[in-house]
Amino acid sequence: MTTPADPLAAEVPPKKPKAQPDGMVEKRGAGLWLTHLGLILGVLFIFFPIWLAFVASTVTQPEIVRPPMPLWPGDRFFENYGKALTSGINAPVALMLFNSAVMALGIALGKIVISLLSAFAIVYFRFPGRRVFFWLIFLTLMLPVEVRIVPTYEVAASFGMLNSYSGLIFPLIASATATFLFRQFFLTVPDELAEAARIDGARPMRFFWDILLPMSRTNIAALFVILFIYGWNQYLWPLLITTDPSMNTIVMGIKQMFPSGDDVADWPVIMATSILAMVPPIIVVISMQRLFIRGLVESEK
Predict the structure, then answer these.
(1) Using CA atoms, how far apart are residues 232 and 182, in angstroms rounded to an integer?
(2) How far apart are CA 271 and CA 58, in angstroms?
(3) DSSP string covering 229-244, please?
(4) How far apart are CA 180 and CA 115, in angstroms?
(5) How many CA atoms are closer than 13 Å to the CA of 206, on its beta-carbon side?
(6) What is the C-alpha separation between 76 and 56, in angstroms, rounded?
(7) Domains (ranges, CATH) in the chain?
(8) Global pTM value
(9) d(CA 22, CA 229)
């Protein structure tokens, strides 16, 4: 007794690759080399000012002032950077770096936590006027910090948050942009996941913590990098909220180091401080680079 042949078991002959016209490989190779050459030139063009700042931070003051400026590092690296960390116009640079790190981390984490919870409530909870509340949050994008700076300062002062980390962080932790992005991502999550979690007896926060939060990892990483740099580069708000020199941030410190009137600038120390101010954001970007790129380009979750 013979069994009928399974049509799915028949071998499908492999498709022959299409013949490429002559010169296609060479042309593709030339285009690849030109692309890499353009990228290398672009990187060098962007990196050259940073290299000059690093060189200026390792030489003496006369070597910077007297042309031509050297293009290779000098022998004053440890001296200039040690002086930069322990000195400053109003506060040591090390303390200002710490203040900036606390402010940037607080703003980034606060914005992400509040935005996650806001987007979760708007998408997964049914309450009257939830669309109205979302659009009210979204409309706050039209009111940047500079527009609402006076009432925000009055509120912070009335709560006694001047010259404090809470005053540096709390007025800036609300983010309509992050709320919008998390809301759009939550809308792409299949409803079957929420139904399955409900059938298994999971409470809303358990569903948020065990399912939504791990799925949002790449989005959180991308937003954390952007928001950390946003908080690190803040200048206007720390300038208003702090009058105690010990609460100055590194951006304020660099501005204070520039001379006024007939004062002479200590350029090696200023350049060393500028390089030190770039190190924490660079560390954050490099350490979270893979998740950051995935969070920006990943479309299928």
Answers:
(1) 23
(2) 9
(3) HHHHT--HHHHHH--S
(4) 8
(5) 8
(6) 10
(7) 33-75 (no CATH), 93-297 (1.10.3720.10)
(8) 0.80
(9) 49
> Tens digits of per-residue pLDDT, 93-142?
889 999 999 999 999 999 999 999 988 988 888 878 778 888 888 787 77
End-to-end CA distance of the chain: 51
Contact 289, 224 (CB under 8 A): no
Q: What is the CA radius of gyration of the chain?
A: 27
CA angle 247, 158, 118 (to 5 degrees): 85
Q: How far apart are CA 202 and CA 210, in angstroms?
A: 10
pLDDT tens digit sequence for 57-107:
888 888 887 878 788 888 888 888 888 888 766 778 889 999 999 999 999
Render pLDDT for 200-241 as a digit per residue (tens, 0 to 9).
887 888 888 888 888 888 889 888 999 999 999 999 899 999
Report which DSSP code applies to 173: -
